[in-house]
Specification:
Elements (H helix, E strand, L loop, with lengths): L7 H13 L4 E8 L2 E5 L2 H13 L4
Antiparallel strand pairs: 1-2
Helix pairs in contact: 1-2
């Protein structure tokens, strides 16, 4: 969640960096539901980055 101290510029930089990565598995520091890790394809990884860019948490 973005808070007043959040830095949208740094968020965009982080997402740009993540877009360059090609992971097979992502371990999450926070979980959504029962997932603490997820196997990803390049397509699903890039889709997650796209979603984060289009709908950042406000």
């Amino acid at each position: 969640m973005l808070v007043p101290e959040s830095n949208p510029h740094k968020l965009r930089q982080s997402l740009e960096f993540y877009r360059t990565l090609r992971p097979d598995v992502v371990l999450m520091s926070t979980t959504r539901g029962h997932l603490s890790w997820v196997r990803v394809t390049l397509q699903s990884w890039l889709a997650a980055i796209d979603e984060a860019e289009q709908q950042p948490l406000f």
